Amino acid sequence: MSKKVSLFMSLILMLSLFAGCSSKATGGNSDKIKVGLNYELSGNVATYGQGLVEGIELAFEEINKNSGVLGKQIEMIKVDNKSDNAEAANVSTRLATRDKVVAILGAATSGNTKAATPAAMQNKVPLISASATADDVTVDSNGKVREFVFKTTFSDSFQGVMMANFAYNDLGLKKAAVLIDTTSDYSKGLSKNFQDTYKKLGGTIVTEEAYQAKETDFKAVLTKIKGTNPDVLFVPGYYEEVGLIVKQARELGLNVPILGGDGYDSPKLAEIAGRDALNNVYYSNHYSSQDNTPEVVEFKEKFNKKYGKDPDAFNALGYDLAYFLADALKRAGAADPVKLKDALAATKDFEGVTGKITIDDKHNPVKSITIIQMKDGKPTFLKKLDPQ
Amino acid sequence: MKELLQQVINGLSLGSIYALIALGYTMVYGIINLINFAHGDIYMVGAYVGFAVTTSLHLGFFPSLVISMVVCSILGVIIEKVAYKPIRGSSRIAALITAISVSLFLEYGMMYFVKAETRTFPNVLGKNSLKLLDGSVVIDYKNIYIVAITIILMVALQYIIRRTKAGKAMRAVSLDREAAQLMGVNVDRTISYTFAIGSALAGAAGVLVGVYYTTINPLMGIVPGLKAFIAAVIGGIGVIPGAVFGGLFLGMIETMVSAYGGSLYKDAVAFAILILVLLLRPSGLLGRNIKEKV
C-alpha cells in the first residue's frame, strides 16, 4: 500500500514538474473561467454524480446567462471518475495540471473526494465537495485543516449524532442494532458517532454487525439481528445494499424502524427494496423537495423546466455548490486559485436552497439537517433538526 | 432453535445457487481439465437474458428460465468452439489464460451493451411466504423455488449422465479421451454437449439469483463464480455429487459463520476451509470415487 502511495506521489510530483514548464496562467487571462467537475458519472454510485452535475449545470447556465462571474463566462470541464478511487485521483491531477482549472468540484463520495485531494493540494487548486460527508475530508489525521479542501455538506459525525438523537428522543427507541459496510469510510464514520451519542443518551447497542459493499445476501446476518430483538436498526450505507437489506429484513419479518443517512437518497432505493417494503424507514438528508420555503419552490420550478422532474437532494446540493463557488469568486475579485481559497474560507451566511451556509475554521459548513420518512417507497419530509 | 432453523433455510438457498454454478465448473473440468473462469460470467449473461425476457417480452418466470438456459447453452458452445477448441492441445496455462480473457471479455462486453449500473429484476414470483412457529421462521416462496429447481435440475442431470447415450459418451471421454475416440465416440460433440449443459445450469442460476436478490450488474458473476469454484474444489473437482455437496456445504458455512461467528469473517473462513481441504484431501471431500467423474 505505502509503495503504491509513494509511486502515486512521485507521479504527481513529476506531473507538477511538467506543469511548471508550461505557462503559469490559470485561465485568468482568457475570457473564460475554467471549473473542473470530477464526478461519478458511471459505476455503482453514478446516480449521485449525475444528480450533482445536473444541479451544477443548471446553476452555471443561469450564471452565464446573467453575464457570468467577474465579467467572464464559466466553462465547465466535466470528467467521469467511474466511481473509482484511483480514477478520481487521476481526474483531479488532469484537471489541475492539464486543464488548469480555477477550482475542482467533486467528487460525490467521501472516498473519491479523499483520493482526489492530494492532487488538488499539490497544485494549490481549491477542491469543493458538496456531498462528501466524512469528517476527515477537510482535516488530515493530525487534525490539521487541509488548506485547499472545502465542503458544503454536513459531516458524518453530525449525521450520526442527529440520527441517534432522533431515534432516542423523537422515536423513543432504546435498543439499537447497527449494521455497517466495512468497505466504506462513510458507513464507519456514521456508525461510530451514532453509537457514541446513542449510548450517551442512555440507549443500548444490542449488536454490531457488518457487510461488504456489493454483497447481495444479508439474510444470515439479518436473522441474527432479529434474534437480538432490537427496537431500531441503524444501517448507514448506500442505496444498492440498503435496498436489498430493507427488502430481506422485511421478508424475514424484521419490521423495526430502519434508520440511515443521505446514502439512501436515490430513486433506485424504492426500485430495489420494493415499494411496500419501504415503510418505517427514516434517513437524514440535506434537503427535501417538499420543503416549502420560497428558495426551494423557486429552485424546483427552474429545475423542473430544464429537466422535467422534481429535484432530489443531490440536484439541490450541486445547484448550491455552483452558486457557492460563484459567490466566492466574486469576493475573491479574480479567477486566482489562492485568492479563491481565502474567499471560500471566509464565506458567511451564504443563502442556498439546502440551507444557510457558514464555513467554520475546519472548512466545514454549519447548517441544519432534514429528516425524511419513507412511506410506501415515497420519501416524505418529516422535520428539520437544527445543530445544538 | 428457531433462529437455527431460519439460518438453515438461508444457507440452503445460498448453497443451491453455488451448487448450480459449481456443476458447470466441475463438468468442464472433468472432461477437458480446464478451469473455465468464464463460467461465472455465463451465469451473469443468464441473469441479463432473464431480465430482458421478463421486462421487454413480459414473459413469466418459467419461460424466461427456459429461454435463458437455451441462450446460455448456445453461448457456452460458441465460447468452446471459438476460444477453447483451437488451443486444446496447448499447455494448461495457455488454456487458463484464455479462460480468464473470455471472462473479462464477457464482463466488459456486457458492460458496453447494458451499462455498468445495477438493474432491478422484476418481481415475477409474487410476494408470498410461509410463516412457521408464530412468524419467527419465514420461508419465502422464492426460497422454495430455488431449492426445488436446483433439485429438479440435478436429478435431470443425473438422468442425462447415467441413462442417455450422450451421458455415457461424456463419462467415457472424461475417463480416457483417446480410448473413447477409438471406440467411435465423437469427442468434439461430447465436449460441446458438456459445455451446453454446464452453461444452461449457470443460466438457470442467473435467473434464480435475479429473482431472489432482485439486483443484477455486469460484474455480478465474479464473486459467485469464485465461490462456486471453491465449492467445486471442496467437493472434489470433476465429481458431480461433489459439486452439489461443496455448494451446499459452502452456503451453509457462510451462513453459520455470519450467524454465530462474525459476519466479517465469512469469506476468510470459506477460503481457510479451501486451504485445509487442499492440504488434507487434495482431491476434495468426495474426490475418491473416480468412476463418478464426468
What does this structure look like?
The complex is a heterodimer of chains A (388) and B (294). Chain A is α/β, with parallel strands linked by helices and 388 residues long. Chain A has helices spanning 2-21, 46-65, 85-97, 110-122, 156-170, 185-201, 219-227, 239-251, 267-273, 294-307, 313-332, 337-345; strands at residues 32-39, 73-80, 103-106, 127-129, 149-151, 175-181, 204-211, 232-234, 258-260, 281-285, 350-352, 355-359, 365-366, 369-375, 378-385. In chain A, strands 7-6-8-9-10-14-15 form a seven-stranded mixed sheet, covered by helices on one side. Chain A has a five-stranded parallel sheet with strand order 2-1-3-4-5, sandwiched between helices. In chain A, strands 11-12-13 form a three-stranded antiparallel sheet, with helices on one face. In chain A, helix 2 (46-65) crosses helix 11 (313-332) and helix 3 (85-97) packs parallel to helix 4 (110-122). With 294 residues, chain B is mainly α. Chain B has one domain (2-220). In chain B, 72% of the residues lie in helices and 4% in strands. Chain B contains eleven helices and four strands; from the N terminus they run ααααβββααααβααα. Chain B has helices at residues 2-32, 39-56, 61-84, 92-114, 141-163, 165-175, 177-182, 187-213, 222-235, 240-260, 266-280; strands at 119-120, 129-132, 137-140, 215-216. In chain B, helix 3 (61-84) crosses helix 8. The N and C termini of chain B lie far apart (40 Å). The mean pLDDT of chain B is 88. At the A-B interface, strand 7, helix 7, helix 8 and helix 9 of A face helix 1 and helix 10 of B.
Number of H/I helices of chain B: 11
The parts of chain A where pLDDT drops under 50 for at least 5 residues are: 17-28
C-alpha termini separation of chain A: 40 Å
Structural class given helices, strands, pairing of chain B? mainly alpha
Largest sheet of chain B: 2 strands, antiparallel
What is the CATH homologous superfamily assignment of the largest domain in chain A?
A: Response regulator
Mean pLDDT of chain A: 87
Mean pLDDT, all residues of chain B? 88
Q: Note the main sheet of chain A.
A: 7 strands, mixed
Please state roughly what percent of the residues of chain A sit in beta strands, choosing from under 5%, 5-15%, 15-25%, 25-35%, 35-45% or over 45%. 15-25%
Protein name (chain B): Amino acid/amide ABC transporter membrane protein 1 (HAAT family)
Family (chain B): Belongs to the binding-protein-dependent transport system permease family. LivHM subfamily.
Transmembrane segments (chain B): 12-35, 65-84, 93-114, 144-161, 193-216, 228-252, 264-281
InterPro entries (chain B): ABC_BtuC-like, ABC_transp_permease, BCAA_transport_permease
